[in-house]
Write a structure and sequence with these properties.
5 helices, alpha+beta
């Protein structure tokens, strides 16, 4: 289980760092920004580099939310939710920085970064929201 949490944190941090470095101009919504050509290229390259056969990763935009969605391809063991939540809490500042950097890219007053982990059946294991501090 610790290996799974470690892999997930690595994926989250890599994606968070990628978005801190991306600069495409101002967009009206996070969805518009995520779907822009430059961001999609970055996403495709990064996701390919982080290819892991144990889960599927998506980055989505909805209004004022940037969503990192990780879906396990097999059912995960009991007790992993607490480990994932703890690991996310330890990395909160990274996701808060991503939320702050979104203000430079998107015309949204209070952008939110959502990190969600889903079981293979689509049920939520855990989810957390982060805002700029």
């Amino acid at each position: 289980m610790k290996k799974v949490v470690s892999i997930l944190l690595t994926l989250c941090l890599a994606m968070g760092t990628m978005f801190l470095l991306t600069s495409c101009g101002k967009f009206d919504t996070v969805k518009e920004w995520v779907e822009s050509e430059d961001v999609q290229k970055e996403l495709n390259d990064t996701i390919a580099d982080l290819d892991d056969s144990s889960m599927k990763m998506e980055v989505l935009g909805e209004d004022d939310k940037l969503i990192y969605s990780y879906t396990f391809l097999e059912e995960v063991p009991d007790g992993i939710a607490e480990q994932l939540e703890s690991a996310l809490n330890e990395q909160a500042s990274t996701f808060e920085e991503v939320a702050a950097s979104l203000k430079e890219e998107v015309d949204v007053e209070n952008p939110i970064v959502v990190v969600e982990y889903l079981n293979s059946d689509g049920s939520e294991i855990c989810s957390q929201e982060f805002t700029a501090e």
